[in-house]
Specification:
Layout: H1 2-9, H2 11-28, H3 35-43, H4 56-64, E1 72-76, E2 80-81, E3 87-95, E4 106-116, E5 124-127, E6 129-132, E7 135-141, E8 146-156, E9 161-164, E10 173-177, E11 180-186, E12 199-202, E13 212-214, E14 232-234, E15 246-250, E16 254-255, E17 262-268, E18 271-272, E19 279-284, E20 287-291, E21 305-306, E22 311-316, E23 325-326, E24 328-333, E25 344-353, H5 432-448
Parallel strand pairs: 2-10
Antiparallel strand pairs: 1-3, 3-7, 4-5, 4-8, 6-7, 8-9, 8-10, 11-25, 12-15, 13-14, 14-25, 15-24, 16-23, 17-22, 17-25, 18-21, 19-20, 19-24
Length: 454
């Protein structure tokens, strides 16, 4: 920007304008993205940005080369589709572009896709068609009984790009296709979820949970409004999550019956530091089903997850736990450093793929086995929830000495029996209270061990 202004106005006047813009931007901008707006405000000479400013195009061109624009967009597409179809229509709507400056002119809009968890559809892309000024459309191929990941890339005439979804940690939207049956759904509109079986807490029992049900309060990384209606569930309405601790919320337990391809489908607005520092998870029976991303560069990791819209999120739940009762939850554990807006959730549903049923004798991709009527919760048998025998399912199979489920003082996490130390026998007096304390500590340590499933 400095070079452009000096070339246009000379050294003295160009440097004066640059200094004015720099000082105004540094005084008022709260972060790097807001610096463009503050530079335009500082350049304005009549209190009306709608009619531009004296050096608007130079400012926009310089900032645009670094991906900083007032342009934004949204992708209009369903989160899930029940009907069988090979593709669906995706619309890309762009706003905030200057009609006075050529740097905001669009070259192409491309929709890209790739499979998620399957081989279809084959990864590809297509150039979107123009529907009207700032409006584009394209056909997106779909997965069958699964989801496709997709995004839109907007290329401007100056070569810079805008990517939607606008989240470096999760840059692809999701679209699920498949016939499903709802097992539990809530839009959070009619009643406080904590009066309907939802539970919440923190890792510090002395501190109450910040999770709350209500309307948007507009924190810096939080939504202003719900996805549908007026209410949603938030980790901290209008604020940031607490540092140095964790908090969680759980749905009521859901009995999934014989369904073996169960999904959580909901709308998410999450803001969390890189998971090297802060871990935001979706859990099923306290086991991780999803976690926010990380740059995986140690303490230099800075791939923060910041949603800027309500995102559809499909999380497969089957296969993580033994049995057919699922307790789905969201949690976030933070360090003492940066803390953001955390979880906001809306339109929550637990659904099941109707084509995956345990006991029909047909093994589907989410089933470990299916022997039809021979399924049984007995040693060495395919379980009634269509998973193979495994340590931790509370059934002692061949090769296991014991199996007490999640935790036990006498059974290891590899299903081997543990022998407790005698510490001198029942009549020993030499050990005194010290011996008793050692035994108590030993048993307590074993009890706290959590069983790991393969």
């Amino acid at each position: 920007l400095r070079k452009a202004l000096i070339a246009a106005y000379g050294e003295t006047e160009g440097a004066r304008i640059v200094t004015k813009l720099y000082v105004g931007t540094m005084r008022r901008s709260s972060d790097i993205p807001s610096s463009l707006i503050e530079a335009l405000i500082e350049d304005d000479d009549d209190g009306n940005l709608d009619n531009g400013s004296p050096h608007e195009c130079m400012i926009r061109e310089a900032f645009g080369l670094h991906g900083l624009r007032t342009a934004s967009g949204e992708v209009a597409a369903p989160g899930s589709i029940a009907e069988r179809a090979g593709s669906t229509l995706v619309r890309v709507n762009l706003t905030g572009m200057s009609t006075r400056c050529t740097s905001d002119q669009i070259d192409t809009v491309t929709v890209e896709w790739k499979p998620s968890g399957s081989s279809t559809p084959t990864a590809g892309s297509t150039v979107a068609n123009v529907a009207a000024d700032g409006q584009y459309w394209a056909q997106l191929p779909l997965a069958r009984d699964g989801k496709v990941l997709y995004r839109a890339r907007v290329k401007f005439m100056d070569g810079s790009t805008l990517t939607l979804a606008d989240n470096l940690a999760d840059p692809f939207y999701e679209l699920y296709q498949g016939l499903t049956v709802p097992l539990y759904c809530t839009s959070f509109e009619t009643a406080d979820p904590f009066t309907e079986g939802w539970t919440t807490g923190t890792t510090n029992p002395a501190i109450p949970s910040p999770w709350a049900w209500g309307e948007g309060a507009g924190g810096s990384t939080d939504p202003q409004v719900a996805y549908t209606g007026t209410k949603f569930l938030a980790q901290e309405l209008g604020g940031n999550y607490m540092p140095g601790m964790g908090s969680w919320v759980n749905m009521p337990p859901i009995h999934v019956g014989r369904w073996t391809d169960v999904h959580l489908q909901y709308r998410r607005w999450l803001a969390s530091e890189d998971s090297h520092f802060d871990q935001a998870r979706v859990t099923v029976n306290d086991k991780k089903a999803w976690i926010n991303n990380t740059a995986n560069t140690g303490d230099s990791s800075a791939l923060h997850h910041i949603d800027r819209e309500w995102r559809f999120h499909d999380v497969p739940l089957s296969g993580y736990v033994a049995g057919n009762v699922f307790t789905v939850g969201w949690d976030l554990t933070a360090d003492e450093g940066l803390h953001l807006g955390g979880w906001q959730i809306d339109d929550v549903c637990i659904v099941a793929n109707i084509n995956s049923v345990c006991g029909d004798g047909v093994r589907t991709p989410t089933e470990g086995c299916d022997e039809g009527g021979a399924n049984a919760d007995r040693p060495n048998m395919c379980r009634t929830y269509c998973l193979r025998p495994a340590c931790g399912d509370s059934i002692v199979d061949t090769g296991e000495e014991c199996d007490h489920g999640d935790a036990s003082a006498t059974c290891s996490d590899s299903c081997k029996e543990l022998e407790l130390p005698t510490l001198g026998g029942c009549c020993s007096t030499g050990g005194g209270s010290t011996g008793s304390a050692m035994l108590a500590a030993f048993i307590g340590g074993l009890t706290l061990r959590r069983r790991r499933r393969p």
